[in-house]
Amino acid sequence: MEVRIIVETTFENGTTKRHRVGYLSRPFRRTQPEGFGLLLEDAKIILRQLQNAILRDQIEEISAASRICPDCDGVRAIHDYRSRVLDTLFGRFKVKAPRIRCCACNAKSDVVLGGPLSPLARFFPDRSTPEM
Fold it and tell me: In the prediction, which pLDDT does 31 show?
């Protein structure tokens, strides 16, 4: 028996994205009693991959929403991407976080921030999820 574990994310705008989270092979003729079900080692790997897929999709959605200027509704440019380490209950993850340029409309909300803003910093100021 072969098992493919796939996660499908549906974003608020209706688009979907699929991630292959894991793969298990349990050949019927060679399976021993201890090989039935999900092994702890497999579960840890699958859980880590699941957390990684969910985090990346959430960061992508937060970043896209943050590009809209709250004052003029224009789309702000991405200044650059920075690697960030985010600590969660399920491990430490390296993610790619965009920094967004201030809007050309010179909105007051951008002036307070100064340079490029990082949407990820607003949600995770300590670079860890709240349960940490």
Answer: 67
